[in-house]
Write a structure and sequence with these properties.
The protein is mainly alpha-helical and 482 residues long. It is 76% helix and 0% strand. The radius of gyration is 21 Å and the shape is globular.
Length: 482
């Protein structure tokens, strides 16, 4: 319990101390007009109250990540606490804040276009395809997943495909309508529900008869029932993504960069939402370990129920929060993924419109871009959900890694303190390269060989990056001189 409390306090302190440092490194300009003002179109660009922007950003980036990912991560033991805290402060929040603020500085551009500015046209083309595919994956995952949960709750009232159709129709509306018509009205309610659920669990953990494992050296080992198949490094660092660092967030931040009224609110919205998500993930990880008595009990019950995080989340909510928890569970476990799915499609629409510079004021133009995206997602629903999720998990962290390298390039070129993104970029490169070499959906290599090859790949990527930066700085110096 002591480690759990300290972990939450460290996250809060991290927001005020490290968040302020990152804000100073970036250098906000309070008198600079934001895209919400300069490009206001009352569809995607419009100033919204900061509290609404925060709750929308929080729900956009959260979804089921800090719930399902945290429960799955808790199966590794208290090591999950360490990754959530350190990952959130030194990787995730920095990633979210700087990508969001760079989008704001570049007139609300999508992340793929910003990558092109700092890492060149070739990587921009790759990121355009990569991010759109990733977002369609997210939309598909959060189309089928909630439909399955609702179908179970309603005893097959409409059937799985009936609920898929209902959710898809909502996605069409939320993607096409101006952001203040549907999203800005529903999201604060759902966001507040998710926070209240986390607060309720926190209070139950503190005042109830629950034991949370401590963060002590002997507990910092792989506690999964099959540690040889799922090594702590790198599997844990991909399993817990949205509660630590997630590339999906970089696709969502531009949505809110188009609604911020002033740069001074960037820290509370981008850094703050990530820290809040880290706290939520920490609470759910602790609840999973405590509710099932210990990590061993969690692993045992998860194995008996097909490693179904949705089942575990439902059991925890109903038993720890009672009837009220059941209502919050519906809002949190069902509404949260739906609200990430709809903004995934909205982000995909905006990325495509940025690529082709296709004006989005008219709804017919929004429809032309959106319909093919929905059609592709519907086709993908025919594929095994588990397969899509596994590839999404790795590609999501790969996107975060690319964004960290882009942010490092920005900081170097602007002569700012670049170590704050370089270290996380190198670490996540090692995570992603090693994961795809070890994972069942990857090359299934022997672990030691995978670690060696992962280190080689990380070294080569770092070397290529520095050569690129040297070339870019030289070119910039020549251009400035001439």
């Amino acid at each position: 319990m002591i480690s759990f409390i300290i972990s939450i306090l460290v996250l809060v302190i991290g927001y005020f101390v490290y968040g302020t440092l990152i804000e100073k490194i970036f250098g906000i300009k309070k008198d600079r007009e934001t895209p919400a003002i300069t490009k206001q179109d009352n569809v995607d660009f419009m100033p919204l109250p900061t509290w609404k922007v925060f709750l929308i950003q929080f729900l956009n980036i959260a979804g089921l990540g800090p719930i399902f990912g945290a429960i799955a991560g808790a199966m590794f033991g208290p090591s999950a606490f360490l990754w959530i805290v350190l990952g959130t402060i030194f990787a995730g929040a920095v990633h979210d804040y700087l990508s969001g603020m760079l989008s704001l500085r570049h007139d609300g551009l999508s992340i793929s276009e910003i990558v092109g500015v700092y890492l060149g046209p070739y990587l921009k083309q790759f990121m355009r395809v990569f991010t759109v595919v990733l977002l369609i994956f997210v939309g598909t995952v959060f189309l089928v997943g909630p439909a399955k949960i609702i179908d179970g709750m309603t005893n097959g009232y409409l059937g799985l495909w009936g609920w898929v159709t209902v959710i898809l129709l909502y996605y069409v509306l939320s993607t096409l309508l101006p952001i203040d018509k549907l999203i800005s009205k529903l999201y604060p309610v759902f966001g507040a529900a998710m926070l209240f659920m986390a607060i309720g669990l926190f209070m139950t953990l503190i005042f109830g008869d629950y034991q949370i494992p401590e963060l002590i050296p002997e507990n910092l080992v792989n506690m999964k029932s099959n540690p040889d198949e799922t090594p702590l490094f790198p599997i844990l660092f991909v399993t817990i993504a949205c509660g630590a660092i997630s590339g999906f967030h970089a696709t969502q931040s531009p949505l809110m960069s188009r609604c911020l009224k002033n740069e001074k609110y960037g820290k509370s919205v981008f850094f703050g939402a990530m820290v809040t998500e880290g706290i939520v993930a920490l609470i759910w990880a602790a609840a999973a370990m405590a509710f099932f008595d210990n990590v061993e009990g969690l692993n045992s019950m998860m194995a008996k129920n097909g490693n179904n995080a949705a089942w575990a989340a439902n059991e925890i909510s109903l038993n720890m929060l009672g009837a009220f928890g059941g209502v919050l569970a519906v809002l949190g476990i069902v509404a949260a993924p739906i609200t990430s799915g709809d903004t995934a499609f909205r982000s995909a629409r905006l990325i495509v419109s940025d690529i082709f510079k296709y004006d989005q004021k008219k709804i017919t133009k929004r429809l032309y871009i959106s319909l093919p995206l929905f059609a592709i997602a519907f086709v993908l629903t025919q594929i095994d959900f588990a397969i899509i999720w596994r590839y999404f998990a790795w590609s999501n962290q790969t996107l975060a890694t690319v964004v960290l390298w882009m942010l490092t390039a920005y900081l170097i070129l602007e002569k700012k303190l670049y170590w704050v993104t370089l270290i996380p970029a190198i670490f996540m490169t090692m995570v992603c390269s090693t994961y795809i070499l070890i994972a069942p959906e990857g090359f299934k290599m022997e672990h030691n060989m995978a670690y060696i090859l992962g280190a080689v790949v990380t070294f080569l990527i770092t070397l290529i990056f520095w050569l690129f930066i040297i070339k870019k700085k030289t070119k910039k110096a020549i251009t400035t001189t001439s």
